[in-house]
Amino acid sequence: MPTVSIITAAYAPKAGFLRETAASVAAQELPAGWRLEWVVQEDGVGPSLGPVLGGHDFVRYEAHDAQLGISLTRNLALSRASGQLVQVLDHDDVLLPGALALLLGRFLGNDIHWAVGAADDLLRDGTRRSWDSALPFGLVEAGAVNRWAEEHGGNWPVHCAGLLMRTDSLRALGGWAGTPVDDDLVTFAALSELGAGWNERTVTWLYRQHADQTTRSGALAGLRDVGRRMALQRAKAVRNAELRFAPTARPGFEEDGSVVRLGRNTKLPADLG
Fold this sequence. Notes:
This protein has helices spanning 18-26, 70-80, 99-108, 144-151, 167-172, 183-194, 226-240; strands at residues 3-11, 35-43, 59-63, 85-88, 94-95, 114-122, 128-129, 138-140, 163-166, 197-208. The chain contains seven helices and ten strands. It has one domain: Spore Coat Polysaccharide Biosynthesis Protein SpsA, Chain A (Alpha-Beta Complex). By secondary structure, it is of the alpha/beta class. Helices cover 26% and strands 22% of the residues.
């Protein structure tokens, strides 16, 4: 059965809206024959979010009891994902009803590696603020997003916190970039340079604005431009190497060739006892 894996990196001190996020996941309805799993990886020492996620059989929760940051936390979640498609969902954002089914359908009829729906800001008073898309809606050819960003000072017209991606495509890039900021943007620069995507007109998710957002953290103030610079560098490197994803061999997701199995770790030191 094909699966959509929602991946969420959670951090308890900033996860005050996680119950609302969970409710939005629970409300998703997929096309017949599809399965949903929500892979939640909790970052930080002293994990405490497990009970918040109880009661849902689609949740696959794990904590690593260390402070590793969002990029490594997302990649640990990715290592546990079984789906052919991966949906990004931050622990404070909201998926609207029908979001996954709509975006999933774009993959069934198009040779694409990513899709993203329009997003409204969810403001602190509960109201929403909409934004016009800088890109045309529909199919987006490989490289088009990065060319736009290069022409606009290293600012991207796609909100990476709402991406639905082919899991194999994401893994082929090594997962999320190992950066302290904009790990999703640096990854998306390579992904969108290597393969086409879909810019969906319909609003499929809400981007919550609140005081505890990681992007508002003063600790990262000196790194604001690092991620954008790395994203531009990565896009140009992929383009200069003349790389492209091969045409998708499994547009219907009938089979899954990504399952791996581990044997005994032969690099462990011998038992001295």
